[in-house]
Amino acid sequence: MERFRKFMGREIKLENVKNNDHLQSCGITCTYLPDPPDEFDEFEFRTGFAGREIVITVAVEQGKIQRIMFNAADENNPEITRSLSPSQLDGLLGDRGNALVRFLEGITE
């Protein structure tokens, strides 16, 4: 998770979040885009990993990233999410970490 620390406090650029080509190149789709975001809001993205749907929630305050969360969507109800186990998180970051960094760089530059 250390590699994501540099994104804390960075501003999310809405026009970049709307760039589907960039998101797709990282294997990610945007599933909730507040436009415009409230003072405190969350953006939701999804990607697949190890046969599961992973939910990436980016919480912002005044447009700047405050928190990045990785959860797994429930197979029976994708609106319900559960925290990844340490081994699942390690697997996700080991396999998709570079793509996740590219994704975050793309939405903050």
Tell me how many strands there are.
5
Global structural class:
alpha+beta
State the helicity in percent bands. 25-40%
Beta-strand percent range:
25-35%
Distance between the termini: 20 Å
Number of helical stretches of at least 4 residues: 3
Question: Rg, please?
Answer: 13 Å
Q: Main sheet, how many strands, which sense, barrel? A: 5 strands, antiparallel
Overall, the morphology is globular
Domain tally? 1
Strand order of the largest sheet: 1-2-3-4-5
One letter per element, helices H and strands E, the order comes to HHEEEEEH
Give the overall average pLDDT: 94
- Taking pLDDT < 50 over at least 5 consecutive residues as the criterion, the unreliable ranges are none
Fold and architecture overview:
The chain is an alpha+beta fold and 109 residues long. It is built from three helices and five strands, in the order ααβββββα. The chain has a five-stranded antiparallel sheet. The radius of gyration is 13 Å and the shape is globular. The chain starts with 13 loop residues before the first helix and ends with a helix. The relative contact order is 0.22. The mean pLDDT is 94.
Question: How is the topology of this model organized?
Answer:
Blueprint: H1 14-17, H2 20-25, E1 29-32, E2 40-49, E3 52-61, E4 64-73, E5 81-83, H3 86-108
Antiparallel strand pairs: 1-2, 2-3, 3-4, 4-5
Question: Can you describe this structure in just a few lines?
Answer:
This protein has helices at 14-17, 20-25, 86-108, and strands at residues 29-32, 40-49, 52-61, 64-73, 81-83. It has 109 residues and is an alpha+beta fold. Strands 1-2-3-4-5 form a five-stranded antiparallel sheet.
